Amino acid sequence: MHYVLRRLGFYLIAAWASLTLNFVIPRLAPGDPASAMFARFEGRIQPEAMAALRAVFGFTDAPWHVQYLTYLKHLMSGELGLSYAYYPSSVSEVIGTGLVWTVGLAGFAVIFSFALGSLLGVLAAWNRGGWLDSVVAPALAFLGAFPYFWLAMLALYLFGFGLGWFPLRHAYSHDVEPGWTLTFAADVARHAVLPAASIVVATLGSWMLSMRNTMVATLGTDTLRLAHAKGLPPRQVMLRYAARNALLPNVTGFGMALGFVLSGSLLTEIVFSYPGTGYLLILAVRNQDYPLMQGLFLVITLAVLAANFAVDLLCLWLDPRTRAHA
Length: 326
Description:
The model has no long low-confidence stretch (mean pLDDT 78). This protein has helices at 2-28, 33-40, 50-56, 64-76, 91-126, 131-144, 148-162, 182-219, 222-229, 234-259, 266-271, 277-286, 290-318, 320-324. 74% of the residues lie in helices and 0% in strands. The protein is mainly alpha-helical and 326 residues long. It has one domain (91-324): MetI-like (MetI-like fold), CATH 1.10.3720.10.
């Protein structure tokens, strides 16, 4: 419990620092969202409305400490401001829409890639010199060496343009009514196949090689020799003793990957015009939507911190040595 509280304190301090930076940086930048909106509408907004717009976007003439307390109060209630690229929609609504698609696509792809890559790495190390170790691992490493966006564009060209097996863009067809229906679910799954497959193919080799190399080192330890000497079944030795110890580095990397899921698979979402948070971030930068950028950066930062804290707890459970030195 002392270790958990110490790690929780560290992440709370990191979260407070990210919240503070998220408040300070936009106010140090030249201009403000109200001025950008005024320029964007080319004089169609009355100058008298500028003060009201500045107040709506949280840029007032009040002292910084007053603005900071107001900012924290709004955060505690889930208010991230208004997006002027999607005005009058709130930032929370816009991000929430993108999160649904990003978590569904990138979240599933990362979890599937991690689970399959780790399993293949365990089997490749256990059967060194077999076809998994000598053929599959180098092939996946070769595919993972290609630029991420190149694999996505190749998949789009071959299976979208060329063969016509899968849709070319967006998360669902425009002629399909969104809802909790089997037709809509099948259409969403069909649109997600190519983006998800490109993420899995690009990352599967790294998970497999990482697990395979750690597993090989673990198989040479005295613990594994003792397990074999005691006559334990090979499957039990492989999964309970070797794989569990070798999994720790992959779990740490998985926590980082899972945290960055909320940033979206940026290039994949651009190639497929997928409406996730990565695509939203590009649109926010392109439209100079500072409130939306600020909200996205905050959500991504907090997601990474939460994922790392969850990994710390998982490692505490998986590795008895961590509990001993906590």
